[in-house]
Design brief:
With about 425 residues, the protein is mostly helical. It contains 20 helices and 3 strands. Strands 1-3-2 form a 3-stranded antiparallel sheet.
Length: about 425
């Protein structure tokens, strides 16, 4: 029961269908000048990546403006990650320009579309997955910047390469950089895929292209976790940290595996390390708070949820989690206040309605409890716990028929 309430996730409400019922189109341009040590195929893909990024930036401006119009609170990282996840490439045109006898410049034009219904679909993805994608996207941007700096450095070395040995070494380094670039593109592809098995295949390709890319193991490890393949997840996350000991997201993700195994002290140690490396990692605070709650260290749990909220004031699940812990501490008014805030941030937050209803039930306010369980079921018609809770209210109210109907519904859903 507790795990259902305390799933570590950030849920966002859907956008207004009347405002977002459209397909938006954007055209981005980018270019890349290849050296004599690079292949045309990868150079073209680099130009395409620059153009796609330009188009995504334009699409992000659209999403940002609409979110302000709707008074919908999204962080910049959420907007960037969402945009990258939902744009679809409609057309790609790459034109070569001869710079000299051995050098080409490729100019790419990419047309992308956003079906604004996909915004809702992205927001409806499993919430912990979205949080992880946001962190992954930040790391990929960092890796991309590192890669571009390395390419610029290698190009500067070309003029000084006079011996065959120097030229062979440069060729080797450019080949390595190409594989690193292609691996990062595979990671981006995997992040866009909703199906875990399809994403797993993309991440495995990334590992094969660049066996030293820690993020490839991290992403695959996270996906194994979601598929319940914990041993493989742990192996990949350990490998990610072996390759990059300062990768905070891998510590956070490994902490989640330890939590699934009920190895709470190990989980806390990993969250501690993630926070040592990234003191502003709101998700790690939220996840550590969840683990402290499992250990019944409620004051510490509340403290961590509070810190997560300070770092991300729109973190609806952190409010929900704090409210649930406060409810168990019998601080009902404070709990209600947190659930109110979670629902304000996300008017379709079924868990928050159910938890607030549970709190009202503990306060013997059956009318408000019933209203909240109704709302939770309205938001999520397959919400087993809400049916059971509503059935209990009907039972207390003496409505045996409705109570039994709700219990039967919960049972039919696997509850």
């Amino acid at each position: 029961m507790k795990k259902f309430f305390l799933t570590l996730a950030l849920m966002l409400s859907t956008w207004s269908s009347t405002v977002f019922a459209s397909v938006e189109t954007y055209v981005g341009t980018g270019e890349y000048t290849m050296s004599e040590y690079e292949t045309q195929n990868v150079a073209q893909q680099r130009a395409k990546a620059h153009a796609e990024r330009n188009a995504q930036e334009q699409a992000g401006i659209f999403i940002r403006s609409r979110s302000k119009m709707e008074n919908f609170k999204l962080t910049e990282d959420e907007i960037t990650t969402m945009t990258a996840g939902i744009v679809k490439i409609l057309d790609v045109d790459i034109q070569p320009v001869i710079v000299d006898k051995s050098t080409f410049k490729f100019i790419a034009t990419v047309t992308v579309t956003i079906d604004t219904n996909e915004i809702n679909h992205w927001l409806e993805r499993e919430a912990q997955e979205r949080l992880n994608l946001i962190e992954q996207n930040k790391e990929l941007r960092r890796k991309n910047e590192e890669q571009e700096r390395e390419i610029a450095r290698l190009k500067k070395m070309i003029e000084g390469a006079s011996t065959d040995q120097q030229k062979l070494e440069l060729e080797r380094k450019f080949n390595q950089a190409d594989n690193e670039f292609l691996a990062i593109e595979k990671l981006r592809e995997g992040n866009r895929l909703k199906d875990h098995n399809a994403a797993l295949a993309a991440y495995t390709e990334a590992v094969e292209l660049n066996p030293k890319l820690a993020m490839a193991y991290n992403n695959r490890g996270y996906t194994y976790t979601e598929l319940g393949r914990y041993e493989l997840a742990m192996s990949d996350l350990n490998k990610a940290l072996e390759l990059e000991p300062k990768l905070a997201i891998a510590y956070n993700n490994r902490g989640r595996v330890f939590s699934r195994w009920n190895q709470y002290e190990h989980a806390i140690a990993d969250y501690n390390k993630a926070l040592e490396l990234n003191p502003n990692y709101a998700t790690a605070y939220n996840n550590r708070g969840y683990t402290y709650d499992d250990l019944k260290e409620y004051d510490r749990a509340v403290s961590d949820y509070t810190r997560a909220i300070e770092l991300n004031p729109t973190f609806a699940m952190a409010y929900n989690n704090r409210g649930f812990t406060l409810m168990k501490m019998k601080e009902y008014e404070r709990a209600i206040s947190d659930f109110d805030r979670a629902i304000e941030l996300n008017p379709k937050f079924d868990w928050a309605y159910n938890n607030r209803g549970t709190t009202y039930l503990l306060m013997a306010d059956l009318g408000r409890a019933l209203a909240d369980f109704n709302k939770a079921i309205e938001c999520n018609p397959n919400y087993v716990k809400a049916y059971n809770n509503r059935g209990m209210v009907y039972k207390v109210l003496g409505d045996a028929a409705r109570a039994q109907a709700d219990f039967d519904k919960a049972a039919s859903l696997g509850g």
